[in-house]
Design brief:
Two copies of one chain form a homodimer.
Chain A lengths: L1 E7 L2 E8 L7 H5 L5 E7 L4 H12 L3 E7 L8 H14 L5 E7 L1 H13 L6 E5 L2 H7 L4 E6 L2 E8 L4 E5 H4 L4 H17 L5 H5 L10 H19 L16 H10 L6 H18 L5 H14 L7 H12 L13 E4 L17 E4 H20 L5
Parallel strand pairs in A: 2-9, 3-4, 3-5, 5-6, 6-9
Antiparallel strand pairs in A: 1-2, 7-8, 10-11
Helix pairs in contact in A: 3-4, 4-5, 5-7, 5-9, 7-9, 7-11, 7-12, 10-11, 10-13, 11-12, 11-14
């Protein structure tokens, strides 16, 4: 059983992870002194996950289950409002706690509802994907999408506790596991390269992974994320490194309309960022190849069509890093590395400006090299 | 010119009020280092107010005007989302500031948009009603309504500065001024009774009031609100006294569907609360009569129909104070006074439970006594 206290600035919360973690979570639930719980669950979850979670909370008070579809297309304020309306109609008041059960989108939408209902109700995360367990619950950021871009509307909100019940993660398709591993690859390349050799010994393109291996993956992420967020809980300074791969990644995610997961898109975005960094003389050929090798080892492949490449342009122009630094015409703000574990600084800013033409070139080059990888049958 | 630094806990912001305040506001705008401004304005405002405000901000950067209807019926998350979508489509980024121009609803909706866009953009309030200038901008609370009740969804967000341009308040109808004065009566009865004699010398049921008198009204409010919020910025403890009159007031506001303003409803709610407090032996006959006298002196009258009384019940059951204290069946949580300037405590809580039957009786008694006032032609 992995037990950690996550400390981001002045914000702290308990993190419990393991086979049977939910059984040992009762004291954390009791500590909320809530007499009612709104359990916000992804309706696609296997029934045993909902039943077991309901059971764990029913010992402590009344539980009202709100089931919703949680795709990127539902990640908007209407869903938050819909949940709040249902919660209040059921009788939620200031003594009610909110429980998020599902992947990253469920966690963010439920997190927004918890932050806004009565100006803040206690929040518990029970993540059911590797991506949520190792990435989105290790952040204070909650957000939903606007038509013009991902995560443009949100707030910072600290959960009271996180419980990762590993038995819930056993039914995940390998593709979701790979998606989570992409963010882990990002964290290791950008923050903790010294742990890459250890990480590589665990990787198998086809999986599957044991509970123990999953627990280690999650622990790697806690290690990397707390290192940068300990002194930057709002991810505005050194924490911006967590956005590595996300400029092109978010654009692809929006352009491909659900064809690729968030992690797969970030993986593609990191390869583009590495290509750009090599062109700027910031990364060596070896360091760029390490990006490719790690993504290949976890079995990720992404194919970008010409039409998607064209559509991505509108999205990266609206990237939500805009404004961290005064904009430059025809340039896009990127998080780049100038070595493994080192974020590049340009004129004192964590955002490096990249000419749009070079972004296009990188996306094109990576789309084609991925084709080559696929043609040679390296992965999956 | 009234110049104050509003200090609520660790949160501080500048407050400027006077004839020509907007002309002297330029340094506060410049201090934001914003290069773009989203000006969110009530579309019902007189054109000169919008023109003059646009002009004041255009000196500092690009300004995008978003005009919307701001009634209680529009005070919901869809309006917030609509504003955010428009702002981003126009090009708002992290270096953009949000300016709220209008009454309390405009300030709250714009405040929510500022709090949520990019997880928080700088916020400036230019209130154009006495109610907004003296009450809603003197709070960190931002909120919108749900179907089941007012202000159930919101957050705490600190503006950077407030500018009350008194020339904008000159065109206000007397009824709006009276609405603002109702909240002021509440603040004086509940927090600063020692200033009531001074306040009464300024009152005339038919108005109008000079700029100087308006400035003094606003200063009374700053004085009262900072006294309780200095150590309770989130209005959860001693600050709960600001909710005086709001349990019945909010219910009436929802039941009367816009017929009465927020202040008029709070005035009615205070009379009900005083009636209840007298029945509990908490207030003397003189203290109750002072409520009536002050409201009569500012010229407020509210007529509640039998149907509205019936509808109010569903709303007070969903009052957003629920959960500050564990609920009791058939009782409603109230903020009551046990003397002028003294909030009643019951079992250590600021919420006093009142049997529903007594709430009904109070509402009925006050609805009838108001009828009597009207029949005798005392007001307006």
């Amino acid at each position: 059983m992995l037990e950690r206290t996550i400390q981001f600035g002045a914000h702290a919360y308990a993190f419990l992870c393991g086979d049977g973690a939910l059984d040992q979570f009762s004291p954390a639930i009791a500590a909320l002194s809530a007499d009612r719980f709104i359990l916000i669950a992804d309706k696609e979850l296997p029934p045993f996950i909902k039943a077991r979670t309901l059971h764990a909370f029913e010992e402590h008070g009344k539980v009202h289950l709100i089931e919703t579809a949680f795709g990127e297309a539902n990640k908007h304020l209407q869903t938050v409002q819909h949940i709040c309306e249902q919660a209040v109609a059921w009788g939620a008041d200031r003594r009610t706690a909110v429980v998020a059960l599902g992947g990253g989108v469920a966690g963010n939408v439920a997190g927004m509802a918890a932050a806004l209902l009565y100006r803040g109700l206690p929040l518990i995360h029970i993540p059911t994907t590797l991506m949520a367990a190792s990435d989105s619950v290790l952040s204070l950021k909650q957000a939903v999408n606007l038509r013009h871009g991902k995560n443009l509307v949100g707030t910072y909100y600290t959960p009271r506790a996180v419980c990762v019940e590993l038995t819930f993660l056993r039914t995940l398709p390998m593709r979701e596991i790979r998606s989570g591993l992409c963010e882990l690859v990002k964290n290791l390349l950008a923050i903790k390269p010294e742990r890459i050799p250890e990480f590589r010994t665990l990787l198998r393109p086809l999986g599957p992974y044991t509970d123990q291996e999953m627990e280690r993956f999650i622990d790697f992420c806690i290690d990397a994320k707390t290192e940068v967020m300990r002194h930057d809980p709002y991810e505005r300074n050194e924490g911006l490194v967590l956005e590595y791969g996300h400029t092109v990644g978010h654009a692809l995610e929006l352009a491909c309309k659900g064809r690729y997961s968030h992690g797969e898109c970030v993986g593609f975005g990191m390869r583009c960022a590495a290509y750009i960094a090599e062109r700027f003389g910031l990364l060596s050929e070896y360091e760029v190849r390490l990006h490719e090798d790690l993504l290949r080892q976890i079995g990720v492949k992404v194919k970008v069509s010409a039409q998607q490449m064209a559509e991505m342009e509108a999205y990266w122009l609206k990237d939500n890093k805009r404004g961290y630094r005064q904009s430059q015409p025809d340039h896009i703000g990127f998080v780049l590395l100038n070595g493994l574990g080192r974020m590049n600084k340009e004129s004192g800013s964590s955002i490096t400006f990249v000419p749009q033409s070079l972004v296009r070139e990188a996306v094109h080059a990576m789309a084609c090299s991925q084709e080559a990888v696929k043609a040679h049958g390296h992965v999956d």
